Amino acid sequence: MAIAAAQSGANVAFTYLNSKGEAKATVDELNAFAVKGLAIQCDVRSEKSIQKAVAAIARQFQSIDVLINNAGIFETAPFQEITAAQWDGVFATNVRGPFLMSQQCLPALRKSRGRIIHLGSLGGIKPWITHAHYCSSKAALHMLTQVMAKALAPEIAVNCVAPGMIVAKTGVRDVKLLNRTAERTPVRRNGTPDDVVSAVMYFATAPTFITGQILTVDGGLALA
């Protein structure tokens, strides 16, 4: 998403938690597009950390035009084994984080008549039995999207991209699961990061008359 924004000519500030090396490499990529790139360490579970990050961005850039809330935790656990700490941890990142970050960016976004884009999930629409805390958090984020769209209009458009099965270039892959999911998906494949990026960039540049929408990027899997 950061690279796609830079390719379109935007200056980009993004946050990271622990991946300092990867963040620096991404800034180098952004700078190659002759735009300003800024990486800031931030824990979206902490209100103070968010305040410091937004203040740092305000010092570097003249405005904030688009806020993308994409920090998230995905965790698998049988319902009866989910602890209160796990439940609270998932909600702290997946719901409280976007709420707090959006609040801190409101003055700048109102001034620019900007946009907020949340990263939801097909899991916020479909019930997955081993992801009660994750699904519930994403369903809450979807509702937060719609509430914010009404509360922040007419200055700010708020939308949400809800990916289905997305296969990243790196990471652990359950080949059998991926094959089963692809077979159930009407377009007969799983999604890619580029599919999600395209949806996010659409909302970043779409008319502000489009607001409060939950866009599933799942190849039709929700219909299966």
Could you explain the architecture of this structure?
The protein is α/β, with parallel strands linked by helices. 46% of the residues lie in helices and 13% in strands. It contains seven helices and six strands, in the order H-E-H-E-H-E-H-E-H-E-H-H-E. The chain has helices at 2-7, 20-31, 47-60, 84-112, 132-151, 175-184, 193-205; strands at 12-16, 37-41, 66-69, 115-119, 157-163, 214-217. The strands form two sheets. A four-stranded parallel beta sheet has the order 3-4-5-6, sandwiched between helices. A two-stranded parallel sheet has the order 1-2.
Topology:
Elements: H1 2-7, E1 12-16, H2 20-31, E2 37-41, H3 47-60, E3 66-69, H4 84-112, E4 115-119, H5 132-151, E5 157-163, H6 175-184, H7 193-205, E6 214-217
Parallel strand pairs: 1-2, 3-4, 4-5, 5-6
Helix pairs in contact: 3-4, 4-5
Mean pLDDT: 96
Q: What class do helices, strands and sheet pairing give?
A: alpha/beta
Q: Helical stretch count?
A: 7
Quantity of strands, as a count: 6
Major sheet summary line: 4 strands, parallel
Overall 3D shape: globular
Strand order of the largest sheet: 3-4-5-6
Helix content: 40-55%
Order of helices and strands: HEHEHEHEHEHHE
Using the CA coordinates, give the radius of gyration.
Answer: 17 Å
Fraction in beta strands: 5-15%
Distance from N terminus to C terminus (CA atoms, Å) equals 28 Å
Low-confidence runs of at least 5 consecutive residues: none
